[in-house]
Design a protein that fits this description.
The protein is an alpha+beta fold. It has one domain (31-114). It is 32% helix and 31% strand. It contains two helices and four strands, in the order H-H-E-E-E-E. The longest helix has 21 residues, at 7-27. The termini are far apart.
């Protein structure tokens, strides 16, 4: 006979896995890669632009941070189009416009960031 986990423990473990995945998405959406065609350095520069935007207090509409990688000729801009409150937290939407040389224009990525 195999040992079995109690039903409540199984449910608790499954909830922990799901919560971990949700937390990872808040910290680094898309598994750390914002789009096809971006090099690891492009991703690093993009994330740094978001960090600079998120560090500004208070967040303001139309604040923007540009980035570019001379090696890959990839560039982009991260802009705050909206500031709002959700669940008592200060939040803002960040729109990412990314240009990858040799590829069709990508759709803008829009992600919500909240101060916890």
């Amino acid at each position: 006979m195999r040992p079995r986990l109690p039903r409540c423990l199984s449910v608790a473990l499954a909830a922990c896995v799901l919560l971990f995945e949700a937390a990872q998405a808040q910290v680094m959406p898309f598994g750390g890669n914002f789009g096809p065609g971006l090099s690891p350095e492009d991703n690093r520069l993009l994330v740094e632009s978001v960090v600079r935007l998120n560090a500004a207090k208070p967040s303001r509409v139309r604040c923007s941070e540009a980035w570019s990688n001379r090696q890959t000729q990839t560039s982009g801009t991260s802009t705050i189009p909206r500031v709002f409150r959700s669940g008592g937290m200060a939040c803002h939407l960040v729109r990412h416009y990314i240009v990858v040389v040799g590829q069709a224009p990508a759709p803008d990525y829009q992600l919500t960031w909240c101060r916890t």
